[in-house]
């Protein structure tokens, strides 16, 4: 089971780059390490990761060019597809990749020379683990489905539609989403008898924003649901009293032409930036939606609550990297963040069709990491790991609305610590 520790670190490394751009802290691959009671795993995890996980090749969407559905630099978007078989041959799982956002021309110009803005830099193969695994012992409900990971190269959670000719930037996330869905529908997804739209981080936000569009692709007889993992980004005050993430989102929405692709039921009464925050839209999503999140999301602590830009004297430097080094007042601040998260989902949780798994861990993205999705020592709520909670909800085997007690009560967490 110690192998899952390696997988945990390696899977998480796929999510982030290695810099701070305009106040958004991107997590450094050389700084991340995974910790549990008796183990620390560094970047040598990559040595075993590829040898044990299913590797799936990149497919570029050739039809996207004619639709103007291109990455920031104008290259074709793409996805990784492992075909379903047996009882899962007509079941489809779409996983939307995460990886932050770009909110200024400068940030997007930088991004277009990375895998987050150009298919030229994308890995030609990706390891499929967690909810994407093809092994029943690792992924009991979805292992033999058609499992697709749609790569993220627009910087606005697949919602923008504009351009900046001077900087040679294409903001075409909405078109990428549409072109990918059209391509997959023509490749057999139209015959699906069940489908799940999922996503992690910025992809988790995208899975909320596109959930009802996904539902509308299929007949009403098709079981269609959505899962947002680590996508519940909150519009909250940071440690300086400012609103770091709101400022970032305002830039994303304005720069990339996101407004026209946001839910009108929200923009009819709130400003567009507010409608990019999940707390203002989850109550109006018609399709069944499952929210998987940690109450102390590592990314939000690092980049929204206590980023260096809001902490010029470094008072939060140790705490934001390692929760065990937080002072009592700092922990109280983080408990306040948890309370705001619970308030944000209160109305959402009243719907019988929706699901929740909010654990009190210091982590980010738990569905793609094998150790947190389904393993012998996975995080649990009520003795149930995440994979079984999601499966029970998806297949209507049980209603799932699990909310953890406050830190430090949960000893099943796989917490992340940063150098």
TrEMBL record:
Q: Does the keyword Hydrolase apply?
A: yes
Spell out the subcellular localization from the entry: Secreted, Cell wall
Main subcellular location: secreted
Keyword annotations from UniProtKB, A to Z: Cell wall, Cell wall biogenesis/degradation, Hydrolase, Secreted, Signal
Signal peptide range equals 1-23
Answer yes or no on keyword Cytoplasm: no
Gene Ontology MF terms = pectin acetylesterase activity
Q: Which GO terms describe its cellular component?
A: plant-type cell wall
Assigned EC number: 3.1.1.-
According to the UniProt record, what class of enzyme is this? hydrolase
Q: What does this protein do?
A: Hydrolyzes acetyl esters in homogalacturonan regions of pectin. In type I primary cell wall, galacturonic acid residues of pectin can be acetylated at the O-2 and O-3 positions. Decreasing the degree of acetylation of pectin gels in vitro alters their physical properties.
Q: What is this protein called?
A: Pectin acetylesterase
Q: What is the lineage of its organism?
A: Eukaryota, Viridiplantae, Streptophyta, Embryophyta, Tracheophyta
């Amino acid at each position: 089971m110690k192998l899952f520790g390696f997988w945990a670190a390696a899977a998480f490394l796929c999510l982030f780059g290695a810099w701070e751009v305009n106040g958004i802290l991107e997590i450094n691959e050389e700084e991340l390490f995974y910790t549990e009671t008796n183990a620390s795993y560094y970047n040598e995890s990559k040595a075993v990761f590829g040898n044990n996980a299913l590797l799936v090749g990149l497919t570029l969407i050739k039809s996207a060019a004619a639709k103007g559905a291109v990455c920031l630099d104008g290259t074709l978007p793409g996805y990784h597809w492992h075909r379903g078989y047996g009882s899962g041959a007509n079941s489809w799982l779409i996983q939307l990749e995460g990886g932050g956002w770009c909110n200024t021309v400068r940030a997007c110009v930088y991004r277009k020379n990375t895998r987050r803005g150009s298919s030229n830099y994308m890995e030609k193969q990706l390891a499929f683990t967690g909810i994407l695994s093809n092994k029943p012992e690792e992924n009991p409900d979805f292992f033999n489905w058609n499992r697709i990971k749609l790569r993220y190269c627009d910087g606005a959670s697949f919602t923008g539609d504009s351009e900046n000719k001077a900087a040679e930037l294409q903001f075409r996330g909405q078109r990428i989403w549409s072109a990918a869905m059209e391509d997959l529908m023509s490749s057999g997804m139209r015959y699906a008898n069940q489908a799940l739209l999922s996503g992690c981080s910025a992809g988790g936000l995208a899975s909320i924003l596109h959930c009802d569009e996904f539902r509308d692709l299929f007949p009403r007889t098709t079981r269609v649901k959505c899962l947002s993992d680590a996508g519940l980004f909150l519009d909250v005050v940071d440690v300086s009293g400012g609103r770091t993430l709101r400022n970032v989102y305002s830039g994303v929405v304005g720069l990339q032409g996101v407004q026209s692709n946001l839910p009108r039921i929200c923009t009819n009464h709130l400003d567009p930036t507010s409608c990019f925050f999940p707390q203002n839209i989850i109550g109006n999503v018609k399709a069944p939606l499952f929210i998987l999140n940690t109450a102390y999301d590592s990314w939000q602590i690092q980049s929204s609550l206590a980023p260096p830009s809001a902490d010029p004297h470094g008072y939060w430097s140790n705490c934001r990297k390692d929760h065990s080094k937080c002072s009592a007042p700092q922990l109280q601040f983080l408990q306040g963040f948890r309370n705001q998260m619970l308030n944000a989902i209160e109305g959402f949780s009243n719907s019988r069709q929706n699901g929740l798994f909010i654990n009190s861990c210091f982590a980010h993205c738990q569905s793609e990491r094998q150790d947190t999705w389904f393993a012998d020592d996975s995080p649990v709520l009520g003795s149930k790991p995440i994979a079984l909670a999601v499966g029970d909800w998806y297949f209507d085997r049980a209603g799932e609305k699990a909310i953890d007690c406050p830190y430090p009560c949960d000893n099943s967490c796989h917490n992340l610590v940063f150098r």
